[in-house]
Amino acid sequence: MQRLSAGILVVAALCGSAIAAESPGQEFKPGAFKLQRGPQNELMVLGTAHLSQLPKSFDPANLSVLMERLAGWQPKAIAIEALSGAQCAYLRNYPERYDDAIKSYCWDTAPAASATGLDVPAATAQVDRMLAAWPAAPSAGQRRKLASLFLAAGEPASAMVQWLRLPVDERHAGDGLNDKLVEVLNKLREKRNEDYQIAAPLAARCGHERVYPMDDHTSDSPVDDAKASGEAIMKAWDNPFVAAGRREDEALRGGLGTPSGVLAMYRAYNAASAAERVFRADFGAALEEPSPQHYGRGYVAYWETRNLRMASNIREAMSLRPGSRTLVIVGAAHKGYLEAYLNQMHDARVVGTDAILRAE
Q1: What is the DSSP letter of 354?
Q2: May I ask which residue range the UniProt record assigns to the signal sequence (predicted)?
């Protein structure tokens, strides 16, 4: 490793000398230098509404056409807007800073820890070992065991993938799953959340063994005056772009009673113009808010940092299967940022959603 590091330094020094001899002013754009030999990694980012925030009348069965289209794209990995168990274990070491994030985003592993006798690091290690030796045709007992380990590792959506891959008559206690965990899985199956209504069922349908949580909340931190900060940002959000977005949302939600109406909502959320509208309504407005404490700029810094770290997690997941397709399912406000950041990667080609979301 020391020899390799020394070699890298020598190459860097030589390259630096060569660059210095060239004319200045040429901006290096990583995304312009893509893989030339072999198939590139393809990345599709699906911006979604958070299903928990849709009207109570929304029926997840109306996701059927969307699910058919996504399955037809044949992704080999699916990344979701959720925190990994490993990150939550880290956050729990710093409760003074991350208390809100822990309460809002971290899975309670206590029931699974009680059933398996494993904490998050130990369960994560067992998941990795089990998947490394995973057979082509695992038994029902192996799937139940892996589901229990995913729950103990703080990865409930991946546990759901295993649960859904079991025949219905094999979805019962045993092999690490006790009655409490079976109850947990059955409740998650009905939860109004895109991880359980879109990502996990799609992963199971496509023959995957897990999904990849890629969210990140390590940039979360308390502000000195939460009330003043909230008021300043809310004032920034009182703008025509927010008002127009609300009107559009109301119209779209009126059509959610049919699969074609659901598809229309996703088409609007993933339109080419959507990212700029999100910026002008939200982050652009906050960026320019005039408080002396620069509350808006702090909010935007958090947002950009979070998206950069999400992008790095996605890039890491893509590296596991070179030349394959990765689908990211994420809140629509993240879509433009993740596409822009990940399009800078040498071995990633961003694929649009237009064909998937075309009108019937």
Answers
A1: T
A2: 1-20
User: In this predicted model, what pLDDT tens digit does every residue of 6-22 receive, in sequence order?
Assistant: 555 545 554 555 544 55
Helix/strand/coil for 253: helix
Three-state SS sequence of 192-242: CCHHHHHHHHHHHHCCCCCCEECCCCCCCCCCCCHHHHHHHHHHHCCCHHH
Sign of the alpha-carbon torsion through 13, 15, 16, 20: positive
| Long-range CB contacts for residues 218-227, cutoff 8 Å, separation at least 24 | 218/87, 218/90, 218/91, 218/309, 219/301, 219/302, 219/305, 219/306, 219/309, 220/97, 220/98, 220/100, 220/101, 220/302, 221/97, 221/302, 222/97, 222/100, 223/295, 223/298, 224/293, 225/293
Note the maximum CA span of the chain.
Answer: 70
pLDDT (tens digit, 9 = 90+) per residue, 164-199?
Answer: 999 999 999 999 999 999 999 999 999 999 999 999
| Class of residue 20 by CB neighbours under 10 A (exposed 0-12, middle 13-18, buried 19+) | exposed
Contact by Cβ (8 Å): 123, 152: yes
State CA 204 to chain mean position distance: 17
Give the containing element (helix H, strand E) for 158: helix 156-165
**E-strand spans in the chain?**
42-48, 77-80, 212-213, 325-331, 349-350
Residues 167, 330, 113: CA angle, nearest 5 degrees: 50
What is the residue whose two structure tokens read 């029926």?
59
CB 324 within 8 A of CB 77: yes
Mean pLDDT of 51-77: 97
User: Whole-model pTM?
Assistant: 0.92
